[in-house]
Specification:
Layout lengths: L6 H7 L2 H12 L9 H13 L3 E4 L2 H5 L6 E5 L8 E6 L12 E3 L2 E3 L8 H19 L7 E6 L7 H4 L10 E7 L5 E6 L1 E10 L15 H10 L4 E2 L4 E10 L9 E10 L2 H22 L2 E10 L2 E2 L5 H12 L5 E4 L5 H7 L3 E6 L11 E3 H17 L5
Parallel strand pairs: 3-6, 3-7, 7-16, 8-15
Antiparallel strand pairs: 1-2, 2-6, 4-5, 5-17, 8-14, 8-16, 9-12, 9-13, 10-11, 11-12
Length: 385
């Protein structure tokens, strides 16, 4: 049987001022993807000061980051189910010299950078819950903290996490820009699609008819392609196109970076193959060549409403006074990878808004609520004797 502390008493233990101060500190420590070292060292120091066992794995060496994933453990002081609380340390760019601004109880950047709430809001929420448990000597099961690297752009930190260091079979990720109370129970698989289109160079003014234009191949292919919202489960996008050297040369080569995502693995395969076919057929039509590489970045997850972790997540949200909403997302997170590695995992909404933009912002009220949810994750997994 699982117990919860008195709701009102536990909520009052969250130190709002400290939580906000920590968040402001965290976002001002630059940690763009693959350059997380300074922030990782800062978090390791904080975790050690709280008495946790702290370890950095070698994921960074494998994926080209200057730090590894930070793994910390606090042994339980009572019987309970061990759990992982997780968030990622890297942020998208521009993220140098972030200057947070508070206006009407909402935290923004100064407009020249992202805020970095994705996902330092999740880290701040977890750390405040952890501090609250330790300073008040609250009963807790074994807690494992994972702060991952290189989440943006492919979940590479989680994919290379040293799972041998973990004993927990449940993970609660704090990394969704939906509202507190939202529980992400479905997340898509993603294919990265790299395309090299080869035509033939020729002088664009003297002998254009002797050339084969790579951009014309690309245009034909994309015109025939199903893109953006394909179905309720599937999306696809052309993200980057690069090529050419001068206006007087028929473009001989072009590189395209694209993606497809789906909650359904079969639909994803169909969509990715469709995109490949469009490129290959267009190249054949013009007498050029298409080289298409499809790489499955991560698999989808779809948790049943009756699963233990979903029922636990719903109870946790209710215990904070919110109404739980189980929803799906179009974005990937470390949740995908944990589930694929045999660790039941959900992603909580933390309220951070407009991620990956200069208008990113975080409500202090939602930051506090996210920390309350993290605290309830801990208390929920204490076993009542």
């Amino acid at each position: 049987m699982i117990q919860n502390y008195d709701i009102d008493k536990e909520v009052l233990l969250i130190n709002k001022e400290r939580l906000v101060h920590s968040f402001l500190d965290y976002v001002q420590i630059s940690s763009p993807t693959r350059f997380e070292k300074t922030f990782a060292q800062h978090m390791m120091s904080e975790l050690k000061s709280l008495g946790l066992e702290v370890y950095m794995d070698n994921a960074g060496e494998k994926v080209g980051s200057n730090a590894g994933n930070v793994i910390a453990k606090l042994k339980g002081n009572t019987a309970g189910i061990p759990v992982i609380l997780s968030a990622h340390m890297d942020t998208v760019s521009p993220s140098e010299n972030i200057k947070p601004v508070i206006k009407d109880d909402i935290i923004y950047s100064d407009g020249t950078t992202v805020l970095g709430g994705d996902d330092k809001a999740g880290i701040a929420a977890i750390m405040e819950a952890l501090r609250t448990v330790i300073e008040n000597d609250l009963p807790h099961p074994t807690l494992e903290i994972v702060f991952s690297i290189f989440e943006e752009g492919g979940l590479h930190g989680a994919k290379n996490l040293d799972y041998n260091q973990l004993e927990s079979k449940r993970a609660f990720v704090f990394d969704s820009s939906t509202d507190p109370g939202d529980i992400i129970v479905k997340g898509p698989a993603q294919d990265k699609i790299h395309v090299k289109l080869t035509g033939k160079a020729s002088h664009a003014g003297v002998a254009p008819e002797k050339g084969i234009s790579a951009i014309m191949i690309a245009s034909r292919a994309i015109d025939q392609m199903k893109l953006l919202r394909i179905s309720e489960a599937t999306t696809a996008n052309i993200g980057q196109i690069s090529g050419g050297s001068a206006t007087n040369i028929v473009m001989p080569e072009l590189i395209i970076e694209a993606e497809a995502r789906s909650l359904d693995h079969d639909e994803l395969t169909v969509q990715s193959e469709h995109m490949k076919h469009c490129f290959v057929k267009a190249a054949e039509d013009f007498g050029g060549h298409a080289q298409v590489e499809i790489k499955r970045m991560y698999n989808a997850f779809n948790l049943d409403a009756s699963s233990d972790i979903v029922k636990s997540a719903q109870a946790i949200v209710k215990a904070t006074g919110l109404t739980p909403h189980c929803i799906s997302t179009g974005g990937g997170s470390d949740t995908n990878v944990y589930n694929a590695n045999g660790i039941q995992s959900i992603n909580f909404g933390i309220g951070e808004k407009m991620a990956h933009t200069l208008n990113e912002h975080m409500s202090i009220k939602d930051l506090v609520k996210a920390s309350e949810i993290a605290l309830k994750v801990i208390s929920h997994h204490v076993t009542q004797s």
